[in-house]
Amino acid sequence: MRNILMPLLSVLLVCTSCSNEADDAYAHERAFLKFPYANDVAPLFTALNNNGQWCCIELGTSGFIFKTFTQSGSYPYTSEIKNYGQPQCVAGFVVGKSSLPDMNMQYPVIAYDLACPVCYSQHLITRKLTLSASEQLTCTKCKHTFDLSNSGLSSDGNRLLRYRTALYSSQGSGMLVVMN
What we know:
By secondary structure, the chain is of the alpha+beta class. It has one domain: Rieske Iron-sulfur Protein (3-layer Sandwich). The chain is built from 4 helices and 13 strands. It has helices at about 1-15, 40-50, 80-85, 115-125, and strands at about 30-35, 55-60, 65, 70-75, 95, 110-115, 130-135, 135-140, 145, 155, 160-165, 165-170, 175-180. It has a 6-stranded antiparallel beta sheet, with helices on one face. A 4-stranded antiparallel beta sheet has the order 7-8-9-10, with no helix packed on it. The chain has a 3-stranded antiparallel beta sheet with strand order 1-13-12, with no helix packed on it. The longest helix is centred in the first third of the chain and has 14 residues, at about 1-15. It is globular and about 40 Å long. The chain starts with a helix and ends with a strand. The relative contact order is 0.20.
């Protein structure tokens, strides 16, 4: 019996080895955004409360710039935002809800970085993506298109930089928090 168990055990150990190349769906870059006025900005409010809607959040010199496929708006940096901590990201944020549910049949708020991951990983150049359709982001330089309804994937398998935590509370003026 022992003669049979030893070869079987060694085969099982070989088959269950770990790989160092695990497919990580989340970005490793630092990210932070606390925006306590999410309900006061129409493009952001629309994206956070409707499936299939997305809002690009850019960090301007004096405030935030919000853009959806059909709307735009802005909001100045307030003392509350400045005192709590400056936003951190690579190029900005893309926040919204997919038109397709996750594995739990829920529509959670999702946040990606606004940087083109192809240009960023190949050349360390930060190029901002633009909404080219309601659920598509496109890089004007490398022409890659990323599908927000399909976990931010492009047709050749590149993936948007996704942040681990995206929370939204609709109470009061609305609170959006993005962290990595």
